[in-house]
Amino acid sequence: MDSKEAAGSPEGLRTIIIGAGMAGLLAAIKLKERGETDFTIYEKGDSVGGTWRENTYPGLSCDTPAHAYSYSFALNPDWSAVYAPGPEIKAYFEGVARRYDLYPAIRFNSEIESAEWHGDKWHIRTKDGQSDSAHVLIAATGVLHHPSLPDIPGLSDFEGACFHSARWDHSVPLDGKRIGVIGTGSTGVQIVSALAKRAARLVHFQRSPQWIMPCPDTRYSEADKQAFREDAENIWQVRNGPEAAARRARFTNAIIDIDSPELAEIQQIVERNLEESVRDPALKQKLTPNYRAACKRMIFSPNYYRSVQEPAVYLENQPIERIEAKGVRMADGTLHELDVLALATGFKVDQFVRPIKIRGQGGLDLDTFWQAGPRAYYAVTVPNFPNMLLFNGPTGPVGNFSLIDIAEHQWRYFDQLIDLVRAGKCKAFAPSEAALVDYEARRNERAKKTVFASGCHSWYLDKNGVPQVWPWSWDHFTEVMSAPKIEDYVLA
Ligand code: NAP
Questions:
Q1: Report field, pTM of the whole predicted structure over 0.85
Q2: Closest atom of ligand 1 to CA, residue 343
Q3: Do the first three CATH levels of 3-48+102-146+348-491 and 155-343 match, i.e. the same topology?
Q4: Which residues of the chain have pLDDT under 50?
Q5: What CATH architecture is 155-343?
Q6: Class of CATH domain 3-48+102-146+348-491
Q7: How far apart are CA 229 and CA 233, in angstroms?
Q8: Nearest CA to ligand 1 atom 12
Q9: Residue bearing the CA closest to ligand 1, atom 37
Q10: E-strand spans in 178-234?
Q11: pLDDT tens per residue across span 380-413
């Protein structure tokens, strides 16, 4: 441990943060705000930004309004658009890391491979042989992190360029090429929208159609930015004003109550969007999902329907038979010859802090504890894994909320737990197994009633088809995160 760092913490409390993405930077800033400088961020990559470092695909943007997808304490009047492009978001995180002088605390290219609880501290080892220890371990490792490759036969036979959307190969030319994109999630839709006018031919392979929520492609003018600069209240209006609050309430109610007028309204909007945007009845038919709006994560797009009607674009909805040297063979025998194949096929979402080998109390392996599936008390803490805090852990809120907002609420909760150690009330805290069992029982029952369980396949569902998500209202989430129920914790 760096003795200079250790000397900086008034309470002698040391923290290890895993990951220098959005949540890791947040934890570091909040620790510094408290005057605690004895922490290190271990980052396996060579720069900050997490998902915004890993995803660089054409058309990458954030479909949550940028002013809402910013830290509450680092508002940015200079966002170029309502839905900011990916590189701008990455630059925002780099700027925040500089402004809060976090770089000296980050160890880049340092992938943690194990973390073990030794009774009073976590001991970590990195793949390149570094070791360290700390009282608190904060996993800020993200959720959509480990690419999921499709199990389509012949994938490795393809002679052209083939890569996952989160591993985009920028050395591969795209203009005037024959490009295939597999996947119709938020990623596939953004890629197709960006390439529709660049490719000689673009085939969008659709296993399931998606409902598309229309949204304006609004760029902020200099005058807009000036207004944001002059009065931060204008930014707060975008984040939390009546319109934003109504949108969040509408969305929350739609998710948790499938009979709600809010879901009916969302359904009407997406149906009207399809009806008014797509001319050809056959294409319209192909694009019509057989499940309810918001069952899968809602896709916001200003231009997907326009893009898919570009002359060079073909929407293929037959099942894929196999991938061959020259392209993709469909079940009906058609071969789509391609130069480039992009796999927008999503992520392995049950990993969370893994593949780091985590051993908690008594050497208990997290893999063993999570054998039946990842579980965390209120999505943030795990019995038998003391002083381990998970940002956006299993069963956290998903959908179209700002993950930054979610992480800030989670931090408030973490900070109060860490306070117990700071104040000498305990050396270690972990939720009781009974508390987790009770939480999971209530959550499971409620989750089955959400729109996510209303008859579609998505990454929200566990292997039993139950949504692994927050099934209650946004207000309930903020209320629960406002103060931990200490009686649900085992303090040692
Ligand atoms: P995803 O939502 O999991 O979508 C994966 C797509 O690949 C689906 O269309 C899926 O089809 C298809 N697929 C998977 N395996 C396939 C196979 N063997 N054959 C054919 N199709 C296959 O992944 P994603 O689009 O990368 O998005 C993941 C999440 O990232 C989003 O839900 C969102 O949370 C986040 N994201 C956010 C933004 C943003 O703007 N904020 C942008 C991009 C991503 P099925 O639907 O039939 O399963």
A1: yes
A2: 7
A3: yes
A4: 1-10
A5: 3-Layer(bba) Sandwich (3.50)
A6: alpha beta
A7: 10
A8: 183
A9: 186
A10: 178-182, 201-205, 212-213
A11: 999 999 999 999 999 998 777 899 999 999 999 9
